[in-house]
Amino acid sequence: MRDRRSLILIPLAAFLAVLPLIVQGVSYGHDFEFHFRNWLEVSSQWKQGVLFPHWEFTAAWNSGEPRFIFYPPLSWTIGAALGLFLPWIAVPTTFVWLALTASGFSMHRLAREWTTSGNAVIAACFYMVHPYTLFNFYERSAYAELLAAAWIPLLLLGILRPRLTIAGIAVPICLLWLTNDPAAVIGCYSFALLALIRVVVSYRVGQGLRHCFKEAAKICAGTILGIGLAGFYIVPAAVERRWVDINMPFMRGVRYQDNFAFGYIGDLSHDAILRSVSLCGIALLVMSVVFVLISLLVGKGDEKSAPAEHHGVPIGGVLGALSLLSCAGVFMLTAPSSFVWSRLPELKYLQFPWRFCTILGATTATLSALAIRRIRLYPSVTAMTALALVIAFSLGGDHFFRQPYHWSFATPGILHDFYYGGRYDATDEYTPASADPLALARANPVFWIDANPTAAAAQTGAGYSTALAQRLHFNVSSDNPGFVILNLRDYPAWRISVNGSPIGIRPHRKDGLITVPIRSGNSEIDIEYAHTLDQTAGWIVSALSAILLLAIRWKRERAASFIA
Question: Rg of the chain over CA atoms, in angstroms?
């Protein structure tokens, strides 16, 4: 970025956006506990030498679930890393600030294609605090989705820039898949629509079939390479989904058909949230229409007003493509799109149609940059306008979306529960397929011994510890042969040995807990989460994709230096 003022203004604007969180405390939205517990668990495992966690031990009343296999790693890695050197009370607000700053810089980079750096800062600041963003980190505390919004402008840039590059497509697609699955699915479908528009328009303007096929090949190669880069996460998640119950998206209240704009199912909390986010979508739609109309009114003379680095990007084509994408996003929020939701692969797992507001927010901010592309402001006026915009929207978000403080679901309560034995329910879509979550007792000890493998434990809750050595390695003594029942749910990746001998087939319990047969006397039980074949394959795919990406970049730089 040639204008270094943006390097100061964007982080400053993000700081002003989170200032209400600093002054009044974080907003405890619906997903706050989920994300905060992820960060605590990962940080704890790192300190114990587990560099890439797979199992979340404290969920499901401390019997655990394979959450980190299926939940993308970028958000919980960043949150856990912040917790290593910051007080935990400061981690959520710092995470939000980082996500907003990243969103601002990526939108600035996109908007800079068609307007001045100062105007791009205004568009970036709007993108950081548009209504759906505020809803996300105040009402929902959906931190992974908030972070994923930072990569959407880069994805739009990858397909809207004058010259397509494989790396420019692959990197944002990889980042989306490593951050948030729903955002990745929405982003890929949106990218596919823009790619189709680009290829069709290229053919219509007479660039020829050869050029169209070349662009289509780059688009496909970039998409495949981006998915390959994220292979270390995608491959195990895809292969092992048969090992868990993923039917949570089909429960009443979280199905897509229950969450179209201004829907009503009779649940006061659900309907209130749906009404709030529907209003966010309406606000973005109205602003998009206004920006499109302004862009059309100021469209004359674009060839004179375009920045030198514009390289002949057809603004009219960009405006049309973004308008079509906005219309598609709005359509997906409404009930008539139900036939699309039921037919497109993976779409039904998104649960909430209003997630498409992530795309609508990005297109609206980009359209705002196009609307003001001919305006030239003094740097001081630009700075004051951008910061005033952030302050106004942030105060509004704090007023309308802030969620109240409840000790048990807030930072102090969650910290106390995590370190001193507090227990909480499972995340349904990560429940091992062999387990019935309703059959699981809530206060089991770490293990108990019984002659009957299906016997229930005395509900004492004794023996809780965050130390993995005490959860996975221990000695037991029994006067008679019997079974050790572990308060740890069974999963195909667990490898268990007794006195050094692997245990194969084990008795099954309805609650899914691991049952280990033992002989009389002392028994040394060791449990290990194995590095499965699908995980190895995923890392190989990622490594090969990274090598290919570096080779493509090296070849491109060599060609550029040769031409120079």
Answer: 26
